[in-house]
Each structure stands twice: as C-alpha cells, then as structure tokens.
Specification:
5-stranded parallel sheet; 8 helices; nucleotide-binding; ABC_transpr_LolD-like; alpha/beta; binds adenosine-5'-triphosphate; ATP-binding; about 230 residues; 4-stranded antiparallel sheet; ATP hydrolysis activity
Length: about 230
C-alpha cells in the first residue's frame, strides 16, 4: 500500500538566510508510528503544520495519500485534513463552552467521510463514548461537562478522542504530553497508540522528550540544515 505521507526535497526557512530543516525523502507507511524529536525551535511544529496543510511548502513536496498539498486549492487542502488527518496540537483546540461529547463529535461534523466511518463503527455518539472510555475518561461523568471544566490532562485526552474518531489514516500530534508528569505521559501515549493500532492510523508524533521514543516504530531527529 502506498505511503500516507511522502516528503520530497522539503525545505523550509522562515528567514531566507536561515533554512530551518530539510527532508530529502521521508515516507510514512500506513499504520506506522513515527516519533520526531528535536530541540526547541528546531521546526517540529512547522513540519507538522506543513503535513497538516496549515502551511504550504516553500520548496519540495508534501504528499498526503498521494495528494501534493501545495497543488491543491485551500478548500481542497482543508478537505484532506478534515477527512484524513486527526490533529492533536499543543493547545488542544477544544471549544471551551461546548461539552466534551460535542467536542469529540466535531471531527464528524467537519467530515462526512469520518461521520460515515464512525457510523459504521456503531454510531458517532457511541464511538465518541467508546474512545473517551478507551482513553481512560468516564463518559457518563464527563460527556456533558463543558471542556473548560476539565483538567489539562483530561482535555488532552478529549482532543485525542476527537482526532481518532472516524479512523483517519493519519494522526499528527504536537507535544500532546507537555503538561503531564512522567506516569501520566506514558499512560497517555500507550492509550493513544493502542487506539491508532486499532484504527490502522499512522502517527507522526512530535516531542522534545526522547523518553517516549521506545513506544514508536521509527525515530527521526529534526535539526538544522547542514
Ligand atoms: N509564523 C512564523 N514566522 C516566523 N518564524 C516562525 C514562525 N513560526 C515559527 N517560526 C520560527 O521557526 C522556528 C521553529 O519553530 P517551531 O515552532 O516549528 O519549532 P519547534 O521545534 O516546534 O519548537 P518547540 O519545541 O519550542 O515547540 C523558531 O525559531 C520560530 O521562532
């Protein structure tokens, strides 16, 4: 099966004289779990934004499921993201006054494909509740709570459930464990990767914390351009 993500001769520079990173070639296979680390400021978030189609490549190509993101109109890029990528960013991007279940449902409101996949798995609400429980949140106690009333660690898990619902081919996660202590961090990563395996989702997980690297199939370092 062809790669979920392909990077080809990708370079990015915020300042013309200072290239941030370059990837001659990187393929992420279906279901593969990739850990990407690098020092603060090395460009990890920038790379994930390129893969998620939030930024467009200055030179080289980012392909997601064979589609070259830079060649798509903005609306088509948004569609690729909504249909095929589950995003867990540092700030979780939950809507604070919306309840937990509705925050998880959002991914299925933005994408018919994911709504249909969740429906096949038993229904959008049932799947949201299953994912919350799988991520160690009690859906009976929390589903109707507004997101703002949850702890940071709970909000991270809600964001993960929203990324996973509808089984997108790719999960991109940007430092989702930065606010957790070591035990909570390890448990969260284990649960997240278990659910990705169940859904067949590939994972691109970014962190500066190399202690997590052992949980992944492949470890890559992002660094300054030589
Ligand atoms: N929109 C932007 N415009 C200009 N420079 C930017 C922009 N976004 C990021 N940068 C710069 O690019 C560099 C890489 O930032 P990025 O957030 O990708 O790094 P990171 O590896 O994710 O860092 P951290 O681990 O601290 O989150 C930094 O020097 C940052 O200041």
């Amino acid at each position: 099966m062809s790669a979920v993500v392909e990077l080809r001769d990708l370079r990015h520079a915020w300042r013309a004289d200072e290239p941030l990173f370059s990837f001659a070639r990187l393929d992420v296979a279906p279901g593969e779990r990739v850990f990407l680390h690098g020092r603060s400021g090395s460009g990890k978030s920038t790379l994930l934004n390129l893969v998620a189609g939030v930024l467009t490549a200055q030179s080289g190509a980012v392909r997601v499921l064979g589609r070259d993101l830079a060649r798509l109109r903005a609306s088509a890029r948004d569609r690729v993201r909504a249909d095929h990528i589950g995003v867990i960013f540092q700030q979780f991007n939950l809507i604070p006054y919306l309840d937990v279940a509705s925050n998880v449902h959002l991914a299925c409101r933005w994408s018919r494909r994911r709504r249909e996949r969740a429906a096949l798995a038993g229904g959008v609400d049932a799947e949201a509740r299953r994912l919350l429980a799988a991520l160690d949140l009690d859906p009976d106690a929390l589903a109707r709570q507004p997101a703002y009333a949850l702890s940071v660690g709970q909000q991270q898990r809600v964001a993960a459930a929203r990324a996973l619902i509808g089984a997108p081919e790719l999960i991109v996660a940007d430092e989702p464990t930065s606010a957790l202590d070591a035990d909570a961090r390890d448990a969260f990563v284990r649960l997240l990767l278990d659910e990705c395996r169940r859904a067949g989702s590939a994972v691109l997980f970014v962190s500066h914390d190399r202690a997590l690297a052992g949980c992944f199939d492949r470890v890559l370092q992002i660094g300054p351009v030589a």
